[in-house]
Structures are given as structure tokens and as C-alpha cells.
Design goal:
The complex is a heterodimer of chains A (409) and B (183). Chain A has 409 residues and is an alpha+beta fold. Chain A has helices spanning 13-18, 46-60, 76-79, 92-97, 110-129, 135-139, 143-162, 190-211, 243-255, 287-305, and strands at 3-7, 26-29, 32-36, 66-70, 84-86, 179-183, 213-224, 230-240, 263-275, 310-315, 325-328, 347-354, 362-370, 378-385, 390-396, 401-407. Chain A is elongated and about 115 Å long. Chain B is an alpha/beta fold. In chain B, α7 links the parallel β6 (121-125) and β7. Classes of the chains: A alpha+beta (409), B alpha/beta (183). Chain A binds chain B through residues 287, 290, 293-294, 297-298, 301, 305, 309-315, 321, 324-325, 327, 331-334, 337-338, 340-341, 343-350, 388-390, 406-409, and chain B through 32-37, 55-56, 59, 62, 64-67, 69, 74, 76-87, 91-101, 105, 109, 113, 116, 118, 125, 152. β12 of chain A pairs antiparallel with β4 of chain B, so a sheet runs across the interface.
Chain lengths: 409, 183
């Protein structure tokens, strides 16, 4: 067994989740973290790769923990004397036995240590008074002698120190929401803000990767010095977790935002996730990756121009031109031919515009459409021809006005 | 820059296909009527339609996973997909439709779309022209990415940036209609 132990002054909850990408065997106790990295001894680069990845994560989460690599989790806290203590495999016991007797207080699982701390400290002080300087002096005694002199607590400490009792690491299941908070008070410009957001998104990416998930939507909340908090929800056309892609999307959103009061804090939270299912790799067919790239591009355009302004056309069952299709992603082939419609133009305006037909224009009746009974919208369509162009116009008897709706381009 | 008088007057569309194939650059279509279907045809989305020229038959020939995508960008309206689907058999799963807010954004998004390299054809229908230097950027990007950019507009553009201009020609209107009805 090889244990990587972290001890920090602040809680390690988000860092713990990110460490799932190093090994699934994790146990956490508020500000203490145990990782079983024994399985990686010969696989995937071994212990050195794990330590290197852990160092990168520590830098990403801006932590400054004590690090111990040892053979047994029960000795990890006792061995945490310096900032970084890495003991070669099989050698941890030698160093453990040479520790001062006071370090025996920290031998065992963290919750037990916390519960028995006063009793342990009293016992260790007594051991020091009777002349024991190191843990080796204690473990040199026979179990009978330890029981007679130090009682039940002494026996328990001996079992932990000799490795007779095993500290089973409880399994860690991430349950906290993936949320990052950025303090924006001292940020002077948009570039600085994006730089700070990039770090937060890198942490989000690592946590999503550790959970094996992809994000489908993100909520960005903005707190100001004065005024109410504002929240923007961003849905992705294609589930993603890449920090770079998320940053591009956020950049598009921020460009469209204006605020009256100085920004105090930004909070990013992943509101919807889906499991990550890796696709089948193919040397010759890049359709999946191309579609994924298009999905990411569409998400950026939607942030800029709106959800209904970007997408592949999907036909819907409606005779009204503006409701007969909608923008969607991913693209779909129509299942069966829809009903045949009268002749309509290739280009229609986003919304019908009031229009005054020219006197020399020729009008040819096209179709007559009526909207829902609660909408005062009745349209008599005509194809209007002039020497320069052909337009699609309609007369609305309710409003007593002509409207231009399309162009036969 | 080539004026497509001879090409348009030619009765063989395969000549135009050979002209547009494997060429990146800007092409302006400034004629009356039929310019959108013509541009869509020249952007080579989907396989050639069958001779029966029925939308339902054309649908059966469409591949489920398209090999190339095109993008349509306009500022004051939408490409009316149902009409093009029913009458021309337009493959809806290969054309991304984008509606922007201003004419300037048509050109901006067009340049971005070319630079992504995701689209083999970019169709722009802006309500206003852009500055010549921006058009030059579009031209260079289109040639570098080998993307065909079709600008459907009647206003004049600097001819030195365009590879071809299908403009007002003798009998062009009727000939374009003939081309469009044949695909």
C-alpha cells in the first residue's frame, strides 16, 4: 500500500474532488485527505506521475498543504513533520519508529485521533516522564507490559503503531455542487476578469473530469456593490467541460452585459451535467469531432444573438411561415415529406414590416392564412411584382395595412 | 474577376460545378430572382439531385451523416427553409442558419465562420456593404481555407476582391430560373 496524505489549514473539499482523477480510492476528513496510490505503482507512469499531477492540482487550487507519502495511512499524520515528507516504499516504519514519542498522539484514523486527543496527550506525557523518548522505545515493550502500564489506550496505540490494525479508507462520493467564486473587487479590467475566470474554469474542468461528467448548463451570478444580484443561465448546444471552450462562451456573454455598479463577486455554478461517454475513435471519419466543434461554435453564437437565431432548420407542423420551422441542434433529417405548401419565398423577414405597394406593382393572389382565434391576425398573401423585384406581401384587414413578409431572392 | 456571361449562357451546369469546385474565394450573386437557390446549389451541399426532380426522391438520396456543412448569415430575416426543402430538396441537416442583428455582424460572423474551417461554403446576405479592407480580409481568409463565400447582394462591391460576379446579364433571369428548376 502507498498513501499520499495532504493536510491543510483550510477545507479541501474541491481539491478532494479533483483528486478523483488521480485515484478513485480517496478518504477525506475536512482538512485531511488520504489517497491510496498503491495501484499505480507500475501503471500509467507510477508514483512519480501521480505526484506531478498532484503538484499541478495544488497549484491550480492555490493550496499550501503538508504532503506525506508513506506505506500506511495510520502513520501519515505522525510523519507530517515538514512541508513535504516522501518516504521510500518499505522504509516508512524505520522513520516512524525514530519519531519523538509525542508524535504517537497522531497515530491512527483522524476521527479517532480527534475523539481521543486529550486522553492520548495525557498518556504520551506520562510516557515521556517515565523515560520514553521515541516511538521505538514504546513499541519495544511487550503487549503484556503495555497493557499493564498504559491500559487500553496503550494497547490501541501499539496496534496502530505496529500496523496490526488497519485503517480502512472510506469511499468518497462527490456530492457538493460544482461552484466557484471569484472576488472581482480588485479586478480593474475585462482582461483581468477573464484571466481570473480562466483559473476558475480550469478548476471546474478538473472537477468535471474527475466525476466523469460533462456540463450542459452553467449559471453565472454577478454581485454588485449596490443593487440586486443578477444571474445569467447559459445552456450549451453540446455538453462540454473544456475550460477554453467555457471561457469563450463566458467571454461572449460578458460582452453583451452592462452593469451600473462596480462588480463585487462572480459565482459560476454547473447546473446540469451528463455522464461523459467517449465516442468511438476513427482514423478516417471526423464527423463526430466536426459536429462537436460546430456545437461549440453554435453555443457561442447563441450567447451573442439569442437561442432562436442560430441552428439547423427543423420543420414544425404549422402553416404560419414564422412558426413552420425552428432552429435546432443537433441537425436532423426530416422523417417524412411534409405536406406540400403553396409557393413561398426563399427569404422571409424576421418580423413583417409595414409596406406601401407601388402603384405600378402587379399583385397575384398567393394564399390566405388566419392565426389562432385569440390573435387578431388574418393575412391575405400576394406575390407583388415590380420591374426590380418580387416580394411577398399580405393585407391584414384588422389593421387595415399592407405588410412585407418575404423576398423572392 | 470573371463575369460568368459565357458560363451562365451555357446550357451545361456541370461547367459551373467545375468552376466552383475546389476554389476558395468570394463570389457575388447580384441578380434578380433565383439567387438564393443558385447560391445553395453552387455551395454543393448534398449530392446532386436525381433527374426526376421530386423533393421526396431527392430526400432518399441524402446521406445521414453529411460530409460538409454550409452556413447562411443574414441580418434582417431568415432563409425560409421549408420553402427550399419542399421545392428544392434542400438538406436541412447541412445548412446552419444564423440571424444576426446588424449588417456589420453579417460580415464579422462570416469571417469568423470561414476562420473556423468548419464550413465549406458561407452564404452571406447583408443589407449593407462593408469597407473594402474588410472584404479583402474575407477574401484572404476564404482563399486560405478554400471556402466558397457567396455574397447575395445587389450593391456594388470592389471587383478586385471577387472571384466572380453573377450579375445582371442578358437573359440571365430566365436562364437562372431554368438552372434552379433543374436542380
Amino acid at each position: 500500500m502507498r498513501i499520499l496524505y495532504f493536510q491543510n489549514s483550510a477545507p479541501l473539499s474541491e481539491f478532494t474532488e479533483a483528486c478523483l482523477s488521480l485515484t478513485p480510492k480517496i478518504a477525506t476528513y475536512t482538512n485531511k485527505l488520504f489517497l491510496d496510490i498503491g495501484a499505480t505503482k507500475k501503471a500509467l507512469g507510477g508514483e512519480s506521475r501521480i505526484l506531478k499531477s498532484a503538484a499541478e492540482l495544488i497549484e491550480l487550487f492555490e493550496l499550501d498543504p503538508q504532503i506525506v507519502v508513506t506505506d500506511r495511512p495510520e502513520w501519515a499524520q505522525s510523519l507530517a513533520l515538514n512541508k513535504t515528507c516522501i518516504f521510500p516504499p518499505g522504509q516508512s516504519r524505520i522513520y516512524f519508529l525514530r519519531l519523538p514519542i509525542e508524535r504517537l498522539t497522531f497515530c491512527g484514523p483522524p476521527d479517532e485521533i480527534e475523539k481521543e486527543k486529550p486522553e492520548r496527550e495525557d498518556l504520551v506525557r506520562f510516557m515521556r516522564r517515565v523515560g520514553m523518548a521515541t516511538i521505538e522505545h514504546f513499541t519495544a515493550l511487550s503487549p503484556l507490559a503495555i497493557n499493564r502500564r498504559f491500559g487500553k489506550m496503550g494497547c490501541s496505540l501499539r496496534e496502530w503503531a505496529d500496523g496490526e490494525r488497519e485503517f480502512v479508507l472510506p469511499t468518497f462520493f462527490p456530492s457538493d455542487p460544482i461552484r466557484e467564486t471569484i472576488d472581482a473587487e480588485d479586478i480593474p479590467s475585462m482582461e483581468h476578469l477573464l484571466f481570473s475566470l480562466r483559473h476558475a474554469l480550469c478548476r471546474i474542468e478538473v472537477r468535471l473530469s474527475a466525476r466523469g461528467m460533462l456540463a450542459r448548463s452553467l449559471a453565472a451570478s454577478f454581485s454588485f456593490l449596490t443593487g440586486p444580484r443578477s444571474t445569467k443561465n447559459i445552456s450549451f448546444s453540446e455538453p462540454m467541460r473544456s475550460a477554453q471552450a467555457l471561457l469563450r462562451l463566458l467571454n461572449e456573454c460578458l460582452n453583451g452585459l452592462h452593469w451600473e455598479s462596480p462588480l463585487h463577486e462572480i459565482q459560476l455554478e454547473i447546473t446540469d451535467m451528463v455522464p461523459y461517454v467517449p465516442g468511438q475513435l476513427s482514423l478516417f471519419d471526423d464527423h463526430e469531432s466536426k459536429l462537436s466543434d460546430i456545437g461549440e461554435y453554435i453555443a457561442r453564437l447563441k450567447c451573442r444573438f439569442g437561442e432562436s437565431s442560430v441552428g439547423f432548420a427543423k420543420l414544425t407542423e404549422s402553416y404560419l411561415p414564422e412558426r413552420s420551422w425552428k432552429a435546432t441542434f443537433p441537425p436532423e433529417l426530416p422523417e417524412r415529406p411534409q405536406q406540400i405548401l403553396p409557393r413561398r419565398p426563399s427569404f422571409i423577414l424576421a418580423s413583417p414590416r409595414p409596406y406601401i405597394p407601388a402603384k405600378n406593382a402587379r399583385l397575384m393572389p398567393s394564399e390566405h392564412l388566419a392565426a389562432e382565434w385569440w390573435e387578431e391576425d388574418d393575412r391575405q398573401y400576394f406575390i407583388l411584382e415590380t420591374p426590380e423585384e418580387r416580394l411577398w406581401v399580405y393585407w391584414n384587414p384588422f389593421q387595415q395595412q399592407w405588410f412585407l413578409h418575404g423576398v423572392f431572392d | 474577376m470573371v463575369y460568368l456571361r459565357r458560363l451562365v449562357l451555357s446550357s451545361s451546369f456541370s461547367y459551373l460545378e467545375r468552376f466552383f469546385a475546389d476554389r476558395g474565394g468570394l463570389f457575388q450573386i447580384s441578380s434578380h430572382g433565383g439567387s438564393i437557390p443558385f447560391a445553395l446549389k453552387c455551395s454543393v451541399i448534398g449530392p446532386p439531385p436525381p433527374k426526376e426532380n421530386h423533393p421526396a426522391t431527392a430526400l432518399n438520396a441524402l446521406p445521414a451523416t453529411p460530409s460538409c456543412y454550409s452556413i447562411w448569415i443574414a441580418d434582417n430575416g431568415f432563409l425560409y427553409a421549408p420553402s427550399l426543402y419542399h421545392e428544392r430538396g434542400l438538406p436541412l441537416n447541412q445548412l446552419l442558419i444564423v440571424k444576426v442583428n446588424e449588417a456589420e455582424e453579417v460580415w464579422n460572423v462570416g469571417l469568423e465562420a470561414i476562420q473556423t474551417g468548419l464550413f465549406s461554403s458561407v452564404l452571406l446576405r447583408p443589407s449593407r456593404a462593408c469597407h473594402a479592407h474588410y472584404l479583402r480580409k474575407l477574401q484572404l481568409a476564404a482563399e486560405r481555407m478554400k471556402a466558397k463565400v457567396f455574397i447575395i447582394a445587389k450593391f456594388k462591391l470592389p471587383h478586385w476582391t471577387l472571384k466572380a460576379n453573377i450579375g445582371e446579364l442578358d437573359h440571365a433571369h430566365s436562364l437562372l430560373s431554368k438552372f434552379c428548376s433543374s436542380f
